[in-house]
Automatic annotation (TrEMBL):
<dbReference type="InterPro" id="IPR012338">
    <property type="entry name" value="Beta-lactam/transpept-like"/>
</dbReference>
<dbReference type="InterPro" id="IPR001466">
    <property type="entry name" value="Beta-lactam-related"/>
</dbReference>
<keyword id="KW-0812">Transmembrane</keyword>
<protein>
    <submittedName>
        <fullName>Beta-lactamase-related domain-containing protein</fullName>
    </submittedName>
</protein>
<feature type="domain" description="Beta-lactamase-related">
    <location>
        <begin position="63"/>
        <end position="231"/>
    </location>
</feature>
<keyword id="KW-0472">Membrane</keyword>
<dbReference type="Pfam" id="PF00144">
    <property type="entry name" value="Beta-lactamase"/>
</dbReference>
<keyword id="KW-1133">Transmembrane helix</keyword>
<dbReference type="InterPro" id="IPR052907">
    <property type="entry name" value="Beta-lactamase/esterase"/>
</dbReference>
<feature type="transmembrane region" description="Helical">
    <location>
        <begin position="20"/>
        <end position="37"/>
    </location>
</feature>
Amino acid sequence: MSEKISTLNSVHFVIQTCLKWFKAIAILISLWIFGIFKRKPKMIHVQGFVESGFEDVKEAFVQNLESNWEHQGASLTVFHKNKLVVDLWGGYSDKECRRLWQKDTISVAFSSTKAIASLCIALLVDKHLISYDDKITKFWPEFGKHGKGAVTIQWVLSHLSGLAYFDTPITESDARDWKKMAKIIENEKPKWEPGTAVGYHAITFGWICDQIIRRTDPQQRSLTQFFNDEIRGNSGKQK
């Protein structure tokens, strides 16, 4: 009887050991298969062209994809003097299923007008009307309330001003009245000590830039009018 029990125990031990090995092997196979499908593709697919003299743009575009600054894919088109000089696209529109980014891939764009506002500021700097290091109180003294006196143009453009959002509720009527918006901005308290931290100025950026342009442009134009006159209206023209 004891021999039968010993034999049964031995068989049970062998079966349990085999089951453990089977489980371990199954887990390893699952991880291996999962790794194959989840592995990030190493090859960077870039298509399109650049005109002679713009090769550095393509190099930077490829580097952005290789270094994962662009997590999936991207496209870039540049016109210079009304001529298409850069037209690139690359990476993946869906990396998980290896769907390549195509020339006609549609993407969502956020905050593209911030680049336009920054370009308008850059044009004023280029005309030597302002400097990036200028404190905003230099041409807008009332802005300095509540500890904002040290804020520079550069800090606004770099999202360092501390005005990432406004506490004051803004109506549609307020948003269309630049003088009311000026008062709201003047009375706002920074959300952190200006210059010490970055916080994305998602909504406030444009209103602040508009006030800067109105106060430094000799014609006192709004951001919209300045852009229409100086950039959009002179596209392709040499001034």
